UniProtKB/TrEMBL annotation:
Stretches assigned to the DUF8198 domain: 19-230
Name of this chain's protein: DUF8198 domain-containing protein
Cross-referenced InterPro entries: DUF8198, FFLEE_fam
Pfam families named among the record's database cross-references: DUF8198
Organism, scientific name: Alkanindiges hydrocarboniclasticus
Length: 234
């Protein structure tokens, strides 16, 4: 299976999600995603507040954890797949693979959060404000421990890829030169998705260290939730 076949599968998973045809579910999904991002801002406040971490923080929250912008990216991914041969000629393979890893992470985050949104709609009124205890109970009911740990493992892999490829002058030069052609062939949003990740790590000594610090704390929270801690997000 080629990397583009894998990307096609991710796109199919995304388009098959129920929230596309269910406005109420889409609204609750947005509530869940908003809560997730606010929770992460609180949990990692001091870490995110470091000036050098600002760009990577925004990339995490706004790109890798889904949101409405992903709809635009998904449409561009379809165009990219249809022009796979051209894309491989103008964008370095390492950059493509790094971007695909980010797409997989974003789709997984949306899928997991949609499951939470469904559970919340089944348990509470659609307008019930979300809080830590409601979300803790939803996590437990769905038993998302393993897929959430998988999410952290994928993030760790992305950190390694960013360090490995973005530090390469040849990759950076080739990627920069590809920008004009990417926009010419109308795959600009996908190019931007990858470029934002590259730009976000420039102020860092190591993307891998940043990601590992983040995922270590998130794993602690996952384990607290599933060990019965009543205040896992505190």
């Amino acid at each position: 299976m080629s990397k583009f076949d894998a990307l096609q599968q991710q796109l199919e998973v995304f388009h098959a999600l129920d929230f596309h045809q269910d406005p109420q579910l889409a609204k609750r999904l947005n509530d869940v995603q908003t809560w997730q991002k606010e929770r992460m801002r609180k949990t990692h406040h001091d870490f995110f507040a470091v000036p050098e971490h600002h760009l990577m923080t925004q990339y995490f929250l706004n790109r890798l954890y889904g949101g409405p912008d992903f709809d635009v990216l998904a449409a561009q991914i379809a165009r990219l797949i249809n022009n796979a041969g051209m894309v491989e000629k103008i964008i370095p393979d390492s950059a493509i693979r790094t971007g695909f890893s980010g797409v997989e992470l974003a789709v997984l985050a949306i899928r997991l959060d949609q499951a939470l949104a469904v559970e919340l709609l089944n348990t509470y009124a659609p307008t019930m404000p979300l809080n830590d205890d409601i979300m803790r109970r939803a996590y437990l009911k769905l038993d998302q421990r393993e897929p959430r740990l998988r999410q952290m493992a994928l993030l760790d892999e992305l950190g390694i890829s960013l360090d490995k490829y973005v530090r390469s002058r040849m990759v950076k030069a080739a990627f920069k030169m590809a920008k004009g052609l990417a926009y010419k062939y109308k795959v600009g949003p996908m190019y931007d998705f990858v470029e934002e990740g590259f730009e976000a790590m420039k102020p860092l000594n190591s993307a891998q260290v940043f990601v590992n610090t983040f995922t270590a704390k998130e794993r602690e929270i996952i384990e607290k939730v599933h060990s019965g801690d009543l205040y896992p997000f505190a």
